[in-house]
Amino acid sequence: YLRMQHPWQVDLSKITMPVMQWHGEDDRIISIGSARGLAGDLPGVRFRSFPGLGRFMVYQVWKEFLTELLELP
Q1: How many independent structural domains does the chain possess?
Q2: Where is 46: in which H helix or E strand?
Q3: Which of 22, 33, 42, 57 would staple 53 via disulfide (CB 3.0–4.6 Å)?
Q4: Is 32 exposed, middle or buried (0-12, 13-18, 19+ CB in 10 A)?
């Protein structure tokens, strides 16, 4: 949401560390389109979206989230 309001003063293409971005498709604050747009600006991002889940989806998929997080290089 904030990304759409004001330009960030950060060149996202220069990020070299692994990034894992998960997003609930039913989030009412940040649209799935905005989330995908951000993912498109991050090099090497591991993006996953979850249909039927919203803003607090991590409470429902936390085991999977932590497992994948620990697998990052």
Answers
A1: 1
A2: strand 46-50
A3: 57
A4: middle
Nearest to 22 by CA among 1, 66, 7, 71: 66
Distance CA 12, CA 65 (A): 23
SS3 45: coil
Q: Which residue range is the domain that position 57 belongs to?
A: 2-6+17-71
Quick: pLDDT tens for 36-60: 999 999 998 999 999 999 999 989 9
Tokens of 22: 């998960």
Query: Residue 48's closest CA among 71, 29, 68, 63?
Result: 68
DSSP one-letter string for 13-40: GG--S--EEEEETT-SSS-HHHHHHHHH
Residue 31 near residue 3 (C-beta atoms within 8 A): no
